[in-house]
Write a structure and sequence with these properties.
Layout lengths: L1 H22 L5 H11 L14 H30 L5 E7 L5 E5 H28 L1
Antiparallel strand pairs: 1-2
Helix pairs in contact: 1-3
Length: about 130
């Protein structure tokens, strides 16, 4: 879930930088400042304080809105995919005599894997209970 959130932040920032270019505000200096601190010697001692006016406040508000919007959209699509396991496939495929590709349904493999993990987890819990009793 954290990867979804950080990708949402970065993606929304890239969208805002495109608007920032045409508006002429100073949010683009976030990336420029990071690159300069990495590449220019002794730039880490420089104090850099660009103006933060109305345009920057507006873009920051849109940045937060786009971040939350993309986070919830990705989270919703991720949860929907987990509930619709019968429609999912994995990239394992076979070809028939005509050359057509047939994908293996993922739901059956997932159910077998889930049952195996559950049985292993239950056996680990049982063994840890035995060790705690001794």
């Amino acid at each position: 879930m954290s990867s979804i959130f950080y990708c949402s932040i970065f993606g929304a920032y890239l969208l805002i930088v495109a608007f920032d270019y045409y508006i002429g505000s100073s949010l683009k200096y976030i990336i420029i400042n990071i690159v300069r601190r990495i590449t220019v010697p002794n730039y880490d001692v420089a104090i850099f304080a660009p103006p933060y006016g109305t345009a920057e406040m507006t873009l920051t508000a849109f940045w937060v809105i786009f971040t939350l919007l993309s986070f919830f959209i990705q989270l919703k699509s991720c949860c929907e995919r987990r509930n619709n396991l019968d429609e999912m496939t994995i990239p394992l495929a076979t070809r028939d005599e005509t050359g057509a590709i047939h994908y293996t349904p993922w739901a059956n493999i997932f159910r077998e894997h889930r049952q195996l993990r559950k049985s292993l987890r239950d056996s680990d819990r049982a063994s840890s209970r035995c060790c705690n009793i001794l």
